[in-house]
Amino acid sequence: MIVLKFGGSSVADAACMRQVASLVRSALPQSPLVVLSAMGKTTNGLFGAAKAAEAGDLAGAMDLQRGLMAAHRKAAAELFDGAVPESLDVALTDLFGELELLLRGVALLRELSPRSMDAIASLGERLSTRIFAAFVGGAWVDARTVLRTDGVFGEAVPQQEAIRPLAADHLKPLLGPGRAVVTQGYIGATEDGLTTTLGRGGSDYSAALFGAALGAAEVQIWTDVEGVLTCDPRIVPEALPIPELSFAEAAELAAFGAKVLHPATIQPAVEARIPVTVRHTQKPEGRFTTISAEVRTGRPITALASRGPVTVLTVSSSRMLAQSGFLARLFEVFGRRGVSVDLVATAEVSVSLTVEADVPLKPLIQDLSAFATVEIHEGRAIIAAVGERLKSTPGLGAQLLSSLGDINVEMISMGANEINLSLVVRQDQSSEALRRLHRVLVGGAA
Ligand SMILES: Nc1ncnc2c1ncn2[C@@H]1O[C@H](COP(=O)(O)OP(=O)(O)O)[C@@H](O)[C@H]1O
Ligand SMILES: N[C@@H](CC(=O)OP(=O)(O)O)C(=O)O
Description:
Layout: E1 2-6, H1 14-27, E2 32-36, H2 42-54, H3 58-79, H4 86-109, H5 114-121, H6 123-136, E3 139-141, H7 160-170, E4 181-184, E5 187-189, E6 195-197, H8 203-214, E7 218-223, E8 244-246, H9 247-255, H10 266-272, E9 276-280, E10 289-292, E11 303-316, H11 326-336, E12 344-346, E13 350-356, H12 361-368, E14 373-386, H13 396-403, E15 411-414, E16 420-426, H14 430-445
Parallel strand pairs: 1-2, 1-7, 2-4, 3-4, 7-9, 8-10
Antiparallel strand pairs: 5-6, 9-10, 11-13, 11-14, 12-13, 14-16, 15-16
Helix pairs in contact: 1-3, 2-3, 2-4, 3-4, 3-6, 4-6, 7-8, 8-10, 13-14
The structure holds adenosine-5'-diphosphate (ADP) and aspartyl phosphate.
Aspartyl phosphate binds near residues 37, 38, 185, 202 and 203.
């Protein structure tokens, strides 16, 4: 069997869904499991409605709800030439009724808990899969009966040991040549049935989790680009498709901002040694990327990625000098505050590190100030150059840095592994930095 995941850009309207249905029909001999995201930017709309309700603007929230309802009913009507099956009509009415109830509750309390946000955000995938399953004539399975997660909301952690038997019970019996099974990406549920989400962009992760649980021959990520490119094409239009990526390269690129893949997508595929391909829904015969354990690209630089905004904290203490326990004490604070650190650079009496821009700094600074002074530099971005021979290509690091010219590099991290060189620059210079680095990449260093 194979898994085909279609992102929001691939199911944005009726015409897109017809194209997806055509691709699914072509895959029928391979016993496809179809994992869908919400239509277009539905999830953004649901987040907007939830935030409006939280602010007490129920009218605004309901306007957004009605807009989403109209778009989904329009897509269904176009797919069925106006004759929407009654069962689907009822399902859509129930789902939008559920959304209205949730929004009214949030507005009444003026409180949007993570649990409420997940319940609201889940509706996008629940709507798109009901419409698509009815249109393609496939079996529909609610992912929440299979994708077990912990009790965290918004960034739920899948319980892979529980998913495998659930997939065997709820998915495997339905899968077979000649028939499609449709389920949601992005959403799961706790053991006691509370709806959770895997975090934005999480449908790729769902696809990999289902693929690993079911022993898929391949996980296909269908999107609006011809595979993983040498850089984000919205920033560097000259970015080129990459035919092959190693799992390690793909994981680094996703972790450092290559939005085309959710950062956790690769892990289940690596464990199950399942190849992942990234393909263009509107150009199925075009170029695509294969990501697998067998791939050894051997390229100095394969691609660039960027992530931001991040905040750089520079923690200094004269007591740090020759103090073996200083770093332990420093990172204990971050661990206790649940703040993840991306890049670290150390000097004699100071340490610079990056954290996500939305991290609450006050409690962190309060703890750190007990034994050090802290400088804060917000509005930065991390740029990562990824390639299997970054460290072993003489002069490449210097070439990359010199290509940046007058763009100031505030931190450099290289060496933690063979394949990543990361730089910190000002966020407002990150796009230009990517364009300059990309000229090195395509200029023969790769
Ligand atoms: N290195 C990269 N290669 C390809 N696409 C990238 C890369 N970095 C960022 N992107 C962006 O990711 C987008 C695809 O991801 P996403 O918008 O989530 O699509 P989908 O709706 O299919 O999930 C592309 O349109 C592209 O703009
Ligand atoms: N719909 C969810 C999950 C997802 O992965 O979407 P997409 O495949 O369009 O990135 C989101 O927008 O985060």
